[in-house]
Amino acid sequence: MNQSKQLELHHAIKIDPDKCRACTHCLQVCPTEAIRIRNGKATIIPGRCVDCGECHRACPYQAFYVEQDDLSRIFDYKYRVALFPAVFVSQFPENISEEQIYSVLKQIGFTHTCEVEQPISVLIDSIKDFAKNEYDSESPIISSFCPATVRLIQVKYPALTDHLVLRNAPHDLAAWYVRQRLAAEGIDPSDAGIFYITPCAAKIAAVKSPVGEKKSIVDGIINMSEIYNQVMAKATGVTGNFHSCDCRNEISREGILWSLPEGEKAAFDGKSLSVDGMHNVIRILERLEDGDLQDIDFLELRACDEGCAGGIMMTSNRFLTADRQHKRAEKFPEAQSSAGMEELAEKLRIAPVQPRPMVHLDTDMEKAFAKMEKARSIMCHLPGIDCGACGAPSCLALAEDMVRHEARMTDCIYIQQLWQKEGKISAEKAFRNLEKRWGENRFDVDCSKRGAKNDNGFGLMNEGEDADLY
User: Fold this and answer.
1) In 220-262, which ranges are E strands?
2) Is 117:273 a contact under the CB 8 Å cutoff?
3) Is 299 helix (H, G, I), strand (E, B) or coil?
C-alpha cells in the first residue's frame, strides 16, 4: 500500500493544540513512534498511528481527544439501534440493574438495544473453521478482535499480517444479527441506523476505515464515556416498569467474557496464549517475528490492560469492571451451537489484511534502501541517548526524519552544543533552532507548569481514570 493510501485511513485520536504543552509524555509512550514535537506542539504522523490511545492516557493536559459521531445523528433514522459491549454494563455499580441501563438507553432515544457479543457461538465456530480449513502455517493464528493490535501488526510487523484470523469483529456480527431481527419485524433497512457505543478509539477508526472490507455495516459510532455519564445521571431516577431487554436471547457466558483477557482463549482447543497491554503485545509479536512461539496455536492479543475493560473511553476502574463482568457472566448459560446461522457466519468473512509498513522512506525500493543506509550513517553522529529533546522519540526516528527532509542535524541539542564548541554555529542561531522546535517563550520562567510552585493540578489525571477506586 502506498503512502497516499496510508494517509487516507481514518484516525479517531486528535490533538487540541490549545491544550498541548509539548511535554513529551506522548512521545515517550507511543508504540509506533507516530508523534513528533513541531513548533511547540505535538503532531501525529497518520501512517504510523494505530489509534491505541496510549498518548491519550499519558497526556497530563488532556490535549488528546477522541473524535466521534454526534449523538444527535441517531435521530436521522426512524429506528435507532444501540450496540454496546458487555463492558458497558459492567461499569455500573451493583445498585444499577441491567434493566435500568436498557431503559435509560431508550429514554435517550434508541428504539432497540443489543449487546455486541451475541450470538458469539457463530464467531467461535467460524474462527475454528478458519484455523482448520483456511490456515496452513505451523505458526499461531492471531485474533483480529482488537483493531489496535491489527493496525499495530500492519504498520510495525507487516510480515505477520498473514497470521491474522480473517473474520470480522463481534460488533459486525451483532450488527448483522440485528439487521436480521429488524427484517423479521418488517422494518425497511434504510429506516434503521445501527450505532456502536465503544470503549475504544481504535474501534472508531476500524468502523470508519474497516480492514478487509469496503464499508462497515455500522452506521455510526459513539464515545462510551458520553453515554455512560447520561445513563448514570438518569438511571437512579428510573422507577416503575423498566423497558424489557428486547435483544438478549443469544447472550452467553462466553460472549460476556469475550472482550476480557482469556475470553477468546477459553473458547479454543490447543495451546493458546492471552496477552493484554500494548507493551506486552509488542514483546510477544517481536518473539513471533523472530520465529519463536511455534508451539502456540492461537494468540489472543489485547492492546489495553484488562482488555476492553481498560479502554480509554471507559469511565469505571478497569479492575472493578472486569470483576463485575466475571460475576455477571456466571448468571448466563454457555453458548449454544451455531447450527442454522450459516448466513450470519458467511457475513463474518473478510479479505486478507494488507500490510502498511510505517517506515516508508521512498516508493522506489532502490532509493528506499539508499535512504536507509544514509539514516544508518547519520546514526553514527547522533548520541543514541533517545532523550526526545529533538522532538522525535529516538535518535533513529530523527535520522529517518532527516532522510525524509523533515528534520535537520541541528535538531539534536547535543550536536548543536558540539557545533557551538567547534564554532560552526552561533549561540543565537542554536537558540532560534530550539524555539522553532519547542515554540517561542517556551524557556521563559513559568511557575504554572506541572510540578512548579503555582501548579493547580490541572490535567494530572484523565477524566474518570482510576477515579472510582472506592
Assistant:
1) 220-223
2) no
3) strand
* Distance in angstroms (rounded) separating the CA atoms of residues 266 and 264: 5
Q: How far is CA 394 from CA 36, 379, 402, in A?
A: 10, 11, 12
Give the number of other CB atoms < 10 A from CB of residue 161. 17
> Which helix (H) or strand (E) is 35 found in, with range?
strand 35-38
Query: How many angstroms separate the CA atoms of 171 and 319, rounded?
Result: 23
Helix (H) or strand (E) holding 98: helix 98-108
d(CA 292, CA 57): 31
Q: Judging by DSSP bridges, how do beta strands 41-44 and 35-38 pair with one another?
A: antiparallel
Residue 39: closest CA among 441, 439, 444, 431: 439
Which of 118, 52, 125 shows the shortest CA–CA distance to 85?
Answer: 118
Whether 297 and 272 have beta carbons less than 8 Å apart is answered as: yes
Q: Are 143 and 308 in contact (CB under 8 A)?
A: no
98-108 and 224-235 helices, crossing angle to 10°: 110
Contact 260, 234 (CB under 8 A): no
Residues 6+ apart with CB under 8 A from 284: 273, 275, 293, 299, 301
Q: Which of 240, 229, 285 is nearest to 463 (CA)?
A: 229
N-term to C-term CA, the chain: 48
Q: How far apart, in whole angstroms, are the C-alpha atoms of residue 127 and residue 173? A: 13
In terms of residues, how long is the chain?
A: 470
Task: For 22-45, give one letter per residue: b (16+ CB within 10 A) or e.
Answer: bbbbbbebbbbbbbbbbebbbebb
Cis peptide before 333 (omega within 30 of 0): no
One pLDDT digit (tens) per residue for the chain, 470 residues: 344 344 467 899 999 999 999 999 999 999 999 999 998 999 999 989 999 999 999 999 999 999 989 999 999 999 999 999 999 999 999 889 888 898 899 999 999 999 999 889 999 999 999 999 999 888 899 999 999 999 999 999 999 999 999 999 899 999 999 999 899 889 999 999 999 999 999 999 999 988 887 888 999 999 999 999 999 988 876 665 554 445 677 899 999 999 999 999 998 888 999 999 999 999 999 999 998 888 899 999 999 999 999 999 999 999 999 999 999 999 999 998 888 888 888 989 999 999 988 767 777 788 888 989 999 999 999 999 999 999 999 999 999 999 999 999 989 999 999 999 899 989 888 888 888 888 888 888 878 777 777 776 544 444 444 444 33
- Of 272, 304, 277, which Cα lies nearest the Cα of 142? 272
Report the alpha-carbon distance of residue 13 to residue 48 in Å, rounded: 12
Residue 102, phi then psi, degrees to nearest 5:
-60, -40
